[in-house]
Automatic annotation (TrEMBL):
The keyword Iron-sulfur does not apply. Gene3D superfamilies: 2.30.30.60. Residues 196-264 form the Mechanosensitive ion channel MscS domain. This is Mechanosensing system component YbdG. It comes from Pontibacter ummariensis. It is found in: Cell inner membrane. PANTHER family: MINICONDUCTANCE MECHANOSENSITIVE CHANNEL YBDG. One of its GO terms (cellular component) is plasma membrane. One of its GO terms (biological process) is cellular response to osmotic stress. It is a multi-pass membrane protein. The lineage of its organism: Bacteria, Pseudomonadati, Bacteroidota, Cytophagia, Cytophagales. It holds the Pfam family MS_channel_2nd. It comes from the Bacteria. The chain crosses the membrane at residues 27-46, 79-100, 112-130, 151-170, 176-194.
Amino acid sequence: MQNARIISTVSHWIFDHLVAMGMPRLTATYVNMLLLLSLVLLLLYVSRLVTRAILRGTAHRFAKKTATQFDDYLIRNRFFSIISLGVPLVIVVQALPIVFYDFQEWIKPLRTLTDIYLILLAIWTVRALLRTLKDYLKTTSLFKDKPVESFVQVLTIFLYFVGGLLIFSLLTGKSVWAFITAMGAASAILLLVFKDTILGFVASIQVSSNDMVRIGDWITMEKYGADGDVIEINLTTVKVQNFDMTITTIPTYYLISDSFKNWRGMQNAGGRRIKRSIHIKISSIRYLSPEDIQKLSKIGLIKDYLLQRQAEISAHNERKEVDSSLLINGRSLTNIGVFRKYIDAYIAQHEFTHKSMTMMVRQLEPTTTGMPIELYVFTNEVRWEKYELIMADIFDHLLAAVRYFDLQVFEVPAADDIRSLGLRVPDSSSLIPPVETMQN
């Protein structure tokens, strides 16, 4: 009110002096309005600077004294800068009737514009609060891995929708309820327009309530080429940073409509599975003679097993009066069976295998590539780099150990294998027919 009285006093003083100077009253009216308008704009600029400086200065001093980060996020999201716009708005509302006193027909449209600005200012203020709340909740342990972004986006859309209704009501002079009633007939069109938003909102709620995906989870979705960590979950998309540092964007709805793999369970359990086979050449599988057993007894990991097992087999064969001149009679050890036992003992004593999870060495069905001996075990490291090193170390050792059991690893013959048989390997150029032949 004090600003209005000052502007009113200045208005009369300027008008009286312009008339006293011999200026026509109509011209003096326009000049008075322009001068007052310039004065109000200057006052708005100064009040904006002063108000923002006071609010931001006070907020910064207060934020330094508090331990919470909420006020820091308020400053980062320009909350105090936005509310400082309210003081110039109050000045404009008070000054309009005075500046445009002689132009009454302008006051109502200008007052409508100030009302619209007030609605927008309220939207900006609430939006800054929502963004601040989102940033703050992401720092808490309870909401750190939740899709807070999705809910904030929904509230923001609803906020703009309500603001649009109020602005429409101001411009048309009709009530908000009349507009909502009219929208009922166009609901099908609105559902079509906002289909992705609605589906994304529903999907975000399901993803959050069912705890399907969290920020920071490692997910694999081959259909979209996603294999990496979730860095953002918003209303319509989920952003995945792949391990090659590229970003894959997946529609949120597809997380509940399509299949994907979440590695969180593996990471939480503290063990990552190794499931890989060594293919043994079937022709290298045989029974072990007493000399072979004596030789293998020098291997520390299976020494006790061989002594105990051989004693059991000898006792059984004597009891059954088995003809031991042929190893096929009765019970005998095989090199592949002892090798499987060696792998069992090796992974049981390995420092990087998870002892409380499944550890198994199994023989799979023979194929054209040999007899698969599959290692099924979990490492106690879930980090990718460590996991790969552990797995490589285990199989480096096992592949080198195969020959001690007189076994061979199956592999497709290479060129040097063919040469070792005295056969000629044809030159690749000889496989190309002559040009004349090709033309014919």
